[in-house]
Amino acid sequence: MFLAIREMRFARARYLLIATIMVLVAFLVLFVTGLAQGLAYDNAASVKNMPATHFIMEQDSNHRFTRSHIDQNLLQEAAQIAGADNAEPLGVRMATVIPTGGTEKVDVTLLAINPGGWLASKVTDGSPLSEEVKGRVLVDQTMVDYGVKIGTTIEDQASGTKWIVDGFVKNESFSHTPAVFLNKQDWVELQAQATTRQGADPASSIVFNAIAIKAVPEKVTELQDALPNSEVITKSEAVSAIPGYKEEQGSLMMMIAFLFVISAFVLAVFFYVITIQKTSQFGILKAIGTRTAYLAGSVALQVFVLSVGSLSISVVLIQLFKSILPSSMPFQLEYSTLLFTCLIFIAMSLVGSLFSVWKVTKIDALDAIGRTMA
What we know:
With about 375 residues, the chain is α+β, with helices and mostly antiparallel strands. It is about 55% helix and about 20% strand. The chain has helices at about 1-10, 10-50, 70-80, 185-195, 215-225, 235-240, 245-275, 280-285, 290-325, 335-360, 365-374; strands spanning about 55-60, 70, 85-100, 105-110, 125, 135-140, 155, 160-170, 175, 175-180, 205-210, 210-215, 230-235.
């Protein structure tokens, strides 16, 4: 440790340069990680926030809410097996609405829920939904950016249906669009309009997209066996099936992986060059009795100190950066994710130092001294 710290203090400019590069790489890793987490949450916040363990969807719907159709009979069967309190119908529909007095169209996701059920989101401002009162909705607070406030009427562009905004909820979105919650009466009416236009029987309009359930594994197996033409999937499977979710996360995860590799490669090259430059010094130290393990440990310690120091500065910078980001930017970096990312970064940096450590172990004292004398 003495050798490692003394050398870093002696060649301060050299190590400061590599530390600066490490700070920038670590900052980029943390930023992209926060962006990936934020985009993932923004894409599926409403589903992730639901206290459901599984969802029942139509077979061959590829686990996608908008492709699945669940009728009342299936809902009743599921409620009998899982328990009436553990099964909630869920309607999901993409729509475009126009706020009163505005001309800007807003893409939203309509989510039909039971207002008194456990899928109901916590209201941050205004009044909660009621099953008895029609024409009222709750919207995500990001709709404020479009001039929406309590009492604003929003009109569905496709059906012409109008709803009055009765309150706001927080962090509710689906497929990067703000969520609009409506009760079952309004959902059934909206579905009836669509089936009437298509010439179908309005009685068949009582259709939801999924059944959210809270069930233990034994009940899930029982549901799978008892419900034909349907699939019981986990919440994570439902989230992964949201259009664009896997592709988006895959691209960002690849970027993060490459940044880890780049940081390890930069450190590996830097310390390998330094090790080559110090071959004669290492040889002399070996000749006077310094153990190889001590020298290798010094190199690894320098990498560890640089990694931890760079990460500490980067964490401070990312927290400052996070505080000035606009609220509309999806960025989320929880402490658990931050800690995990930092540990991976340090581990990759130490892996990058192994090449230099290997080089130190291969230095022959006599050859190094002979080269110095020559």
